[in-house]
Every structure is written in structure tokens, then in C-alpha cells.
């Protein structure tokens, strides 16, 4: 018999029937990284680092097989996947089982052999981090990633996929915008287009420390219109560019909710999105807030299907997809309200609280592959 949950909503009742409708499964195979990027969550969180046990990884893939509409396994989270000692074994196993595979990487640990095997295996999507055009005068990105090295990895991957004749993997580049690099975005877009990169994902900065608040460009301090106009023109010449909002808007739309995403942390905890994967402080337009990690269950103890269709996770997704939660970000009472101090609960009783989320405001983006390069994944 199918599960069915009845919830009270104001003066009525809502009946929700959970389905095995997950589309994208993000797996944080490690929370460790070989770099110490100044803007990264890792420099500010309170969590213990670790690598996912290989047996747990295999169990997650077994569980993933229960979801008939699953489009992709994605190695993501907050960490560098290639740090994991069994990284390539994990890549091979995902492809052996017939899943589409994507990943986010800084690229610095990827060897020629790895890149060639990506093309041979038909890895579907690889996103690299790069925040500036590599030049002699500026050879290091804002996140201390050597962009020249990253660009060389991209060139080689393009070469290997061309040799295979399949155009796999699709190649994207993630860019975090600050006051230091926003003027360089059009030049970076042209550079990536000439590298034969398929997509450029532009995201704003979430300050993790008070001194980073001055670096954001979505607080009205910068006119981003000329930059956006140039990016849109470049996008018409062959590079897919996903551009965020650069000012606070009323509309909310969460890519994680809309695309039925779950994220499994390295230790097996299941979160609804990147935001709740770890515990850290963030600054929302200069206002300090503590985001506490939140899990709907651990895949060591339950199947992914049990967690996904549980009463609490089902109600959370229903509530978030219908945007039945308050908006702390532009609430006139936010400076006197205790609910805005953490992400634990909002004034409507939702737990955890998405009421201050800048992802839902389209200011922050993560690679959600649904429609990224003129095609669906």
C-alpha cells in the first residue's frame, strides 16, 4: 500500500502521497580539500572532515537504483572529490552501473590519465572552479586556485573527448562574483568560449566572515547591468551562461526543490541541499546568521527510499516547493526577531528554516544539471 500523509494547513487538511521521484542525487564523497580558498565554506564551518567509506558508497548506489526517474549521480558537496583515495574507483562504479555522472572539482588533482578515462568512460558532466582569466599578472584565482593550471586541465579534457567523438563530458566552469572580479566576467566568458567550454555558471558570494560583506555585488553598491548585457551577448555566440540575480527580488525559486535533489554527506547524513549540509555562520546582507546542519536520516541506518518518503522529509519538500514559508530577508521585523539568528525554525513553524535562503532568491547558484547546455540531463 502506498504511503499517505495527512497534514493540517491553516483551516484545512492536505493529503500528500510521497513518490520515489528523486531526479538528482548529490554525494559528498569527501569533505576534505587540497586547497584553502578564502571564500569557501570549509574555512568557517564547525564540522569534522572525513572521507566516505567505500562500502557506504556502494550501499548508496544500491539505494539509488530504487528511484526510476533518477537522472544523475553528482559528486558534490563541500570538498574536492579527487582527494578521496578511491575517487576513480567510485567514478568507474557509477558508470559501470549505468548512471549518468557529474562532478564539481577544482581540477588541480586531475591527472592526464584521469581526464582521458573520463572521456573513455563517458563521464557526463564536469564543472571546474575558475574565477579569473589566467594571465602573467594574475595567475591565481580569488580562491587561491591556479587558474592557469585549471585551464590546462580543461584543454586536455576537451582534447580527449574530441578524440572519443562523443562530446562527453560536457564541461562547465563555476565562477563566484565579488567586487574584485566582476569587471572581468565578460573577458572570462570569452576565454572559456575559446577553450570550448560548454557552460559558465555565475554565482554570487555568501560571506562567511564579516570582512567579506564588503565584497558582495548584490547589495546595490555595484551596477551589474553593463556586465550582464555583455555576458548575454557572449551567450549568443555559443557559451551557455547561467546568470544570477544581482538584487533582492520578491520571487523565490529553489533549484534543489524544483529538481527533486537530495544530498548525502560523507558520513551518510541526508540533507535537502548544500546549505544544510554543514554548520557555519553566514552573513545575509551584513546580518550574521548561524546555519546548522540538518539531516532527515542516515543511509547507514535506513534506505534512501525510506528517508526520501519519510513523513518529515515529504512535508518539508511539499512546503518548500509551494514556498509556504516567510521571507526573513526583507521582513521589517528581522532586526528584532530571534528566528533570524539561526536556520533552525522560522516564525511559521517550518523546520529547518529556508526563510533567509539566498539560493531561493536566485542570488546563489550551484550546478543543478537539469537544463544546462541546451539539453536535459
From TrEMBL:
Keywords: 4Fe-4S, Iron, Iron-sulfur, Metal-binding, S-adenosyl-L-methionine
Gene Ontology molecular function: any one: catalytic activity
Pfam families associated with the record: Radical_SAM (PF04055), SPASM (PF13186)
Needed co-factor(s): [4Fe-4S] cluster
SUPFAM superfamilies, sorted: Radical SAM enzymes (SSF102114)
NCBIfam families referenced in this protein's UniProt entry, alphabetically: W_rSAM_matur
Name the UniProt record assigns to this protein: Tungsten cofactor oxidoreducase radical SAM maturase
The organism of origin for this protein: Thermococcus celer Vu 13 = JCM 8558
Amino acid at each position: 500500500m502506498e504511503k499517505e500523509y495527512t497534514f493540517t494547513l491553516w483551516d484545512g487538511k492536505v493529503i500528500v502521497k510521497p513518490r520515489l521521484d528523486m531526479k538528482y542525487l548529490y554525494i559528498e564523497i569527501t569533505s576534505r580539500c587540497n586547497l584553502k580558498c578564502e571564500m569557501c565554506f570549509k574555512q568557517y564551518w564547525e564540522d569534522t572532515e572525513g572521507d566516505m567509506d567505500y562500502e557506504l558508497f556502494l550501499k548508496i548506489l544500491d539505494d539509488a537504483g530504487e528511484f526510476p526517474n533518477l537522472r544523475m549521480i553528482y559528486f558534490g558537496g563541500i570538498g574536492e572529490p579527487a582527494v578521496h583515495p578511491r575517487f576513480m574507483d567510485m567514478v568507474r562504479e557509477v558508470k559501470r552501473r549505468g548512471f549518468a555522472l557529474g562532478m564539481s572539482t577544482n581540477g588541480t588533482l586531475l591527472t592526464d590519465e584521469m581526464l582521458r578515462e573520463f572521456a573513455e568512460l563517458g563521464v557526463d558532466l564536469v564543472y571546474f572552479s575558475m574565477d579569473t582569466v589566467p594571465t602573467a599578472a594574475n595567475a591565481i584565482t580569488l580562491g587561491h586556485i591556479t587558474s592557469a593550471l585549471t585551464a590546462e586541465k580543461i584543454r586536455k579534457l576537451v582534447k580527449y573527448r574530441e578524440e572519443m567523438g562523443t562530446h562527453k563530458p560536457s564541461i562547465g566552469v563555476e565562477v563566484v562574483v565579488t567586487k574584485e572580479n566582476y569587471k572581468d566576467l565578460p573577458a572570462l566568458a570569452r576565454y572559456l568560449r575559446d577553450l570550448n567550454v560548454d557552460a559558465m555558471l555565475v554565482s554570487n558570494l555568501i560571506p562567511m566572515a564579516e570582512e567579506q560583506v564588503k565584497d558582495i555585488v548584490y547589495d546595490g553598491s555595484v551596477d551589474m547591468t553593463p556586465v550582464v548585457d555583455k555576458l548575454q551577448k557572449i551567450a549568443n555566440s555559443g557559451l551557455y551562461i547561467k546568470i544570477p540575480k544581482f538584487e533582492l527580488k520578491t520571487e523565490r525559486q529553489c533549484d534543489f526543490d524544483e529538481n527533486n535533489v537530495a544530498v548525502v554527506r560523507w558520513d551518510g547524513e541526508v540533507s535537502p541541499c548544500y546549505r544544510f549540509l554543514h554548520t557555519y555562520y553566514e552573513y545575509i546582507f551584513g546580518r550574521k546568521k548561524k546555519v546548522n546542519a540538518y539531516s532527515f536520516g542516515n543511509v547507514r541506518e535506513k534506505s534512501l527510499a525510506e528517508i526520501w518518503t519519510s513523513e518529515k522529509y515529504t512535508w518539508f519538500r511539499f512546503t518548500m516547493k509551494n514556498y509556504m514559508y516567510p521571507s526573513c530577508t526583507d521582513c521589517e521585523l528581522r532586526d528584532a526577531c530571534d528566528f533570524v539568528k539561526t536556520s533552525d525554525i522560522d516564525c511559521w513553524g517550518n523546520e529547518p528554516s529556508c526563510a533567509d535562503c539566498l539560493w531561493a532568491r536566485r542570488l546563489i547558484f550551484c550546478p543543478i544539471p537539469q537544463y544546462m547546455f541546451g539539453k536535459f540531463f
